[in-house]
Give the backbone structure.
Amino acid sequence: MILQVKDITKRFGVVRALEGVSLDVGRGEVHALVGENGAGKSTLTRIIGGAERADAGDISFEGSSQALSSPAAALAAGISIVYQHLNLSDELTVAGNLYLGREPRRALRGGVDDKAMRRAVTAWLDRLGAEFPADELVGRLSPSDRQLAEIARGLSHDPKLLIMDEPTASLAPVAAERVFAVLRELTAAGLAVIYITHELAHVFDLADRVTVLKDGRNALSAPIAEVDRGGLIEAMVGRAVEELFPPRTQQPDRAAAPALELRDLTLPGYFESVSFSIAPGEVVGLGGLVGSGRSRVARAIFGDPPERAADPLRGTVLVDGESFRPRGPRSAVKRGIGFVPEDRKAAGLVLGATVADNIALPQLERLASFGVLRRGAERAVAERETEALRIKTPGVDAEVGNLSGGNQQKVVLAKWLARGCRVLILDEPTPGVDVGAKAEIYLLVRKLADEGTAVLLISSDLPELLGLSDRVLVMSRGRIVAELEAEAATEESVMKAAFDGMETAPGLESAA
């Protein structure tokens, strides 16, 4: 075994993060580490990587415990970590980020060898199938491209053990499979991998063994061949999850006036002539490859066009039959539109603010008297929503940045539930969310639809897209290329429409 973890315990104040956790990883092995949000997975990886000190227990890497005394020492020993929370600088290029602090030097003239650095980074980007150059500023990358850059950085250290914490949460299936292919090549050459994910399909596709953590303790550890999906879920959540996608109890009334309608909506360079409508109580899925323009359409509806758009938004948006001009998020919120963005940390939350403050943001005017926020009213709303969504937090006064990813996502949803929306746009609503929390979010989406909310769902997770949607629209190169009723929509038909659109639709190079 290259890594042996034995009886690790870690507490933060009165909170027990880990209690007697053990784990071992062999050379050339992919060891999946799974569990609900808050189970202790990220804490364990920080301890292995030297970023945290365990209160008790032993860790041995290649027979030595001294290698893990600090992040720098762990990296020097051959342990590289791709963290769930991206650690890239927006102001640096991709190459500058990947080689920050270890830039290659020119032999004769001195200074940084930029050409050698770009060549090395380009080789990794090409191997991962990235479509952006090494000299692109990270701040200009989409969340999925940033994730690929983070993975490339982890691999560029040529590690002996690679720890990946939700590495493909924001990637489309095609991009994720390219990453898996690279991992298979590297593990065949002896690389050991700890792979943390909430995507159970990835566990069975990639892993040799799996360990489940629940409430900071070992709940299961076994070869993947000895575990089935139901048993894995039960070990994670402590109960069987019989129905991931709840059935409809109400059918949308498509004869009614649409809650949201788009007519020839166009943002030159990003998407063109996008037309569709959503009935009250209907969930319309928007599928397609990453870069097809799905998120740009969602942001445009919410009044958040890209900063570099050369021309204004054209076309018509109607809410409940009345024309609406998206002039900014404030105007969208006033018209009853809510938006859960793809990147919750950058656009969906104020990480340094409390849970209560985040939940209150869309409805400050309702919670204020004569311009002064009524803290009691804010707290009451926050406590109601945290209880309803079962958000795991020490309290509504806790900083939202300290919550797990799944609970942060619930806070984003809670603020729109508290506000109340006629139209709710969900852009990749469950990346980094465990299976138990996913089931709760899906039940919530179904409940909102049954109560009459119109939902626009953007998701690269095809089972999620198909399991929740009443209709599926497929985008490719900035245009709608197919519309599929739920009964006729399959993963194959959605992907076929997306790829066929790449062949037939005129290109819009900036679509994202």
In short: The CA atoms of residues 300 and 326 lie 7 Å apart. The chain has a mean pLDDT of 88.
